[in-house]
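#structure-requests
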Amino acid sequence: MDADVAHLARLIREADAVLILTGAGISTASGIPDFRGPNGIWNTERPVPFDQFLASEVHRRAYWDQKARAAAVFGDAKPNRVHVACVELERAGKVETIVTQNIDGLHADAGTSPNRLVEIHGTGREAACLSCEMRTPIEPHLEAYESTGTIPTCSECGGLVKPATISFGQSLDPMSLHRANQAAERCDLVVALGSTLGVYPAAEIPYAPTSRGVPYAIVNQGATEHDHWPTLTLRIEGDVTAVFPQAVDLALVG
């Protein structure tokens, strides 16, 4: 038994309210490419900032073209062992909240309860009207765009519609951020999985709990921006889909 895995299992076993922060590194195992890595999406796709989406039909079309190309990849993705392990921890009564930076909806697909899940960068499963805020499933909008080339607008008010994800320059949903911060105040363990912890304000979430002495563990393949935190309890370099499920199994049955 790897000593670091055993250490993580012990932290989980001793906790009652785990805050789990997940990033793109857990989605890659489900076949979804990351955004910023060596083979990341932004190496081949230029992201469309929010202000450009608002200002120009040309940029709105570029944005919807990107979403249409990505739809097949996201649509085929299934939850992996990390998502399942998070659900097992929740069923054991140990999860305070899962805050995910991912927009793929795989935590929900795996069975994480809505009241335990904060999709802090939004979800690609829905579209949102930027005027009346009505939410609708994304698929009809993508299908209509691909078949007609018409940029989606709201059926209720005629406003601009975009996937309910957070674009560059777009503010986070205040309620999602509030829920994440409230979870940080209540948790007794923070575990970051598959994230470089370089995207803010999501990367700030561990600050509050660690400042009051809550243990903090990171599992990631590759460096993170929190690797040298003085309050970091445990840093495991490795495949999160192997390490975390093993630690959860050991914590729950060991």
